[in-house]
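seq as requested:
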Amino acid sequence: MAQYAYSATAPAGSRYIFLAGVCPLTDDGATAAVGDYAGQAEVVVENMHTALADAGASITDVIFTRVSVATTHQDDLIAAWDVVRAAFGTHDVPSTLVGVTVLGYDDQLVEVEVVAAVAG
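struct tokens:
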């Protein structure tokens, strides 16, 4: 059996937060860490923390992620995944890791969709 969470349950009465594709963009809108899967994943994680905080949530409120990586090589998937998974520490979140053909911004290699649930 794979060593990751398969499911999660949101607390009753939760307020849901949906982050559509968190991207590796800098404050000026440029793609960060061009050509670096792990580097882009680090920026995505930073941007995810910011977006969650802006919505009144934290990483421990996350109940699902989808990590998309623009590659056909498993090593690139793992490089991005290792960064994202490490960011959650002991908060093991059900996640889907997928390789995709292309992402929306020039030079973008990593994107993470997030669902969080804040107990009401």
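The CA atoms of residues 35 and 43 lie 13 Å apart.
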